[in-house]
Amino acid sequence: MKQLLTHLRAYRRDCILAPLFKMLEAIFELFVPLVVAAIIDRGIEGEQTAVIWQMGGILVALGLIGLACSVTAQYFAARAAVGSAASLRHALFAHIQSLSYTELDQIGTATLITRMTADVNQVQSGVNLVLRLFLRSPFIVFGAMIMAFTVDLPSALVFVVTIPALSVVVFGIMCWSIPRLGQVQSGLDRVLGSTRENLLGARVIRAFGREDAEREAFDDRNRALTALQLKVGRVSALMNPLTYVIVNLAVIALVQTGALRVDNGMLTQGQVVALYNYMSQILVELIKLANLIITVNKSLACAGRINAVFGVRSSMPIAERPAESGDPQAPAVEFRGVSFAYAGAAEPSLAQLDLSVPRGQTVGIIGGTGSGKTTLVNLIPRFYDATAGEVRIDGRNVRDYATAALRHKIGVVPQKAMLFAGTVRDNLLWGAHEGDATDDAALWRALELAQAREIVEKKAGGLDAYIAQNGRNLSGGQRQRLTIARALVGRPDILILDDSASALDYATDAALRQSLRTLTDTTTFIVSQRAASVRHADQIVVLEDGEVAGIGTHDSLLRDCPTYAEIYYSQFEKEEK
Questions:
Q1: Distances from the Cα of 437 to the Cαs of 432, 440, 451, 539, in angstroms?
Q2: Any bridge partners for residue 564, and if so which?
Q3: CA 217 from centroid of its chain's CA atoms
C-alpha cells in the first residue's frame, strides 16, 4: 500500500478535488426529495402552477449542477487512478529489471505478468472507486437519515432500524466473500500460468500429441476456479434480494406510518414521498458502498501481491564504489575455485572450477546435457553470482563492476535466439552501447562477421526489413546468425556463444568460426555439444555433471580425457557412416 501512496503523491490535487466534487453532488442530491415534496404539497395539492414551474426549474438546475460535479469528479478520479497506475507499472517494471535471474526463476514469468497487468488494473479500479464513492456513499446514507429526521421524527425512526439491518446483511456477506476472493485470484494465477505454458509450448505439445492431456489439465484448473467463483458468486448474489426485502419492508412500515400521520394531519403527502426517496437513496448507496468495499479489498489484495514483488531484493548487490575498468594486463577471464548451485537445488551445478583465459583466446566448452555449460558462461556477465569462489574479468571480481560497465564488455548470444518485432536495424542496435559507432557500415560489418549479410541483402528493405516477434518470419539458422550479429555490433571484449550455432549447417558454422578468429582482441567462449565447433579452440573445457573432466587442446584431450574422446568419436563415427 505504501508503494501505491507513493505514486499517488504526484496527484494530490486530483485526490482532493475528486471527492470534493462528489460531496457537492451528494449535497445537491439530498435536496431533491425536498423539492419533490414542495411540488406535491404546494404545487399539485395547492394547484399553484407557478410553484410547479419554479420547483421544476430548481429540480433541473440541481440535476445539471450535480451532473457537472459528477463529471468533474470522474475526470479527476480517473486522472489520479490512471496516472498512479501507470507510474506504479513503470516502477514495477524497473524493479523487475533490477532482479537477478535467481529471483526471476523463483517468482516465475506468469506471476510477474499477472502482477504487471491484472493486479495493477485492479488497483487502478480501486483507486478510482475510492476517490468517487468512499466519502459520498456514507455521506448520503447518514445525510438521508438526518434529512428524514428534519421531515418527521416518528417516521424517521424506521430509518434507525433499517440502516443497521441493511449494514448487517451487506457487511456480513462482504466479510465472508473477501477471503474467498483472494483464493479466486490465486486460482486465476494458476489458470494464467497454464495458458502461458500451453501457448509457448504449442509446437512441442503438438509434436508429442499431448493436446488432449494438456486440455484436460487446463480444464481441471479452470473447473476449480469456476467452482470457487460460483461459490463466491452465489453468496454475493444474496445481497440484492436480501437488501431489497429489508428495504421493501421498511417502505411498507414507512408508508403505513406516513399514511396514519397524513390521516391525522401531522404529515403531508409530499413529505411521505420525500421519506420514501430518502429510503431509496440509502438502499442504493449501501449497495454501492458494499461493492466499493469488495473492490477495495480486491485492490488491497492485489496491492499486497504487487508489494510482495517490490519486497523481493536482488541477491546480487551492487558494489558501493563500482569499478568501471580492470587491469588490461590481467587474464581476460579467470575462475578461481568457482562453485554454483541454483536456489533450492540439492546438488551444485558447478563445482570447484579453476580456469584462466588470456585476452584474445577462444575457449570451447563442451559436455553432455545438464553438465553445467550454460551455467558456467552465465557467471561471466553476472547473470548469477557464484556461491563459492570468484569470477574475475581483467583482474577484478565481477561483483566489483558497475552493471552497465560489466555488460558493456560482454556480448552474449543465448541458447534461444530471441528477436523483437521491428526492423533488422532495430534488432541490431540492441547490441550497441552508448558511444558505440552505430552507422550502417558498423551494422553491415557485424552481419558479415556473423555470416548474416546475405540474409539481409536478400530481404526487401535491407536493414529496414521487418522482423516479426521472436523472428517468426525467419528460419532457425537465420535467427541465430542475426542474434550473433547483434552481439557483435557492440564490439565486445568478451563474446559468449551459448550453443548459438546449433541450427547452422557445418559449412556455415565453420565459416562463422573462421570469421570470429579475425577478432584478435576479443575473448570468445563457444558453448556447444558439437566437437567440430570447439576442436580448433585455444583451450577446451570438458564438463561432466558440473565438474571439470578436462581442460586442454583438442589433441591433448583426445589423448587424455575419456569424456571428450567419447563425445568426439561418437559424433565423427556417425559422420563417416
A1: 8, 9, 20, 32
A2: none
A3: 24
Name the DSSP letter for residue 317.
P
Q: Is pLDDT at 346 greater than 90 in this prediction?
A: no
The Cα–Cα gap between 284 and 287 comes to: 5
Q: Which positions ≥6 away from 223 have C-beta within 8 Å? A: none
Residue 427 grid cell: 534488432
Asked if 565 and 536 touch (Cβ cutoff 8 Å), the reply is no
pLDDT band at 365 (very low <50, low <70, confident <90, very high): very high
Q: Which domains does the chain have, with CATH numbers?
A: 2-311 (1.20.1560.10), 333-418+485-576 (3.40.50.300)
- How large is the average pLDDT for residues 473-479? 86
Residue listed under C-alpha cell 533450492? 344
Report DSSP state, residue 318: P
Whether the Cβ atoms of residue 394 and residue 328 lie closer than 8 Å to each other: yes
In this prediction, residue 436 carries a pLDDT of 61
- Full DSSP string of 416-465: S----SEEHHHHHHTT--TT---SHHHHHHHHHHTT-HHHHHTSTTGGG-
Average pLDDT on 316-321 reads 70
Strand, helix or coil at 352? strand
* Mean pLDDT rounded to a whole number for the chain: 85
Give CA–CA dist 472/420, Å, rounded: 10
Task: Report d(CA 41, CA 35) in Å as an integer.
Answer: 10
Q: Name every residue whose Cβ is closer than 8 Å to that of residue 222 and which is 6 or more positions away in sequence.
A: 191
Name every residue whose Cβ is closer than 8 Å to that of residue 37 and which is 6 or more positions away in sequence.
151, 268, 270, 271, 273, 274
**Do the Cβ atoms of 1 and 307 come closer than 8 Å?**
yes
Least confident span in 71-75, 346-350, 436-440, 478-482: 436-440
